[in-house]
Amino acid sequence: EGLADSKYRPCPLLVKYVEAGWLGKKAGRGFYDYRGDVPVPTR
User: Domain spans of the chain?
Assistant: First the structure.
């Protein structure tokens, strides 16, 4: 029980982003694409 409960599982999109290395500003990409001058939402 505890944290092993399925309600605490990360959402599939978050798992996909982490596996791809899309970790946010430091990686240059995540929920936003930080590679340009202005952050652009990714789809």
Answer: 10-41
